[in-house]
């Protein structure tokens, strides 16, 4: 049996909480726009075997927008389309993680 396989499988938190919630949420930090932007950028560049998926809460809310890329399990904190550009062009296109955007332990 052949299994699906990706070079990179990206999950971007899309969780939304009510305004004023103590933990905040990635949705309020623009996660929906950043997901759409990443998908279109990956498609435009023709990066093969790379899947961008919505995720529920990844339990890194205070450090969001939370992104994790498998198979290696690299965590990023992104804030802008410029951050997405860097991740797509370096990590997803060349396999080189963007150290300046890595999520740090809370
Ligand atoms: S709301 Fe995004 S990690 Fe929890």
Could you describe the 3D structure shown?
With 106 residues, this protein is an alpha+beta fold. It has one domain: Glutaredoxin. The protein contains two helices and four strands; from the N terminus they run βαβββα. The chain has helices at residues 31-45, 81-94; strands at residues 8-13, 50-55, 66-70, 74-77. Strands 2-1-3-4 form a four-stranded mixed beta sheet, covered by helices on one side. Strand 1 (8-13), helix 1 and strand 2 form a beta-alpha-beta unit. Helix 1 crosses helix 2. The longest helix is centred in the middle third of the chain and has 15 residues, at 31-45. It is globular. The protein starts with 7 loop residues before the first strand and ends in a 12-residue tail after the last helix. The relative contact order is 0.22. The structure holds FE2/S2 (inorganic) cluster. FE2/S2 (inorganic) cluster binds at residues 13, 15, 25-26, 57-61, 64, 66. Residues 13, 15, 25-26, 57-61, 64, 66 line the site of FE2/S2 (inorganic) cluster.
């Amino acid at each position: 049996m052949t299994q699906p396989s990706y070079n990179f499988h990206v999950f971007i938190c899309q969780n939304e909480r009510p305004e004023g919630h103590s933990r905040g949420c990635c949705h309020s930090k623009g996660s929906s726009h950043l997901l759409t932007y990443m998908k279109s950028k990956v498609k435009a560049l023709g990066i093969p075997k790379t899947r961008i998926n919505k995720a529920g809460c990844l339990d890194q809310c205070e450090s969001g927008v939370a992104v994790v890329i498998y198979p290696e399990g690299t965590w990023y904190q992104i804030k802008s389309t410029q951050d997405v550009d860097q991740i797509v062009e370096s990590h997803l296109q060349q396999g080189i993680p963007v150290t300046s955007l890595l999520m740090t332990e809370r």
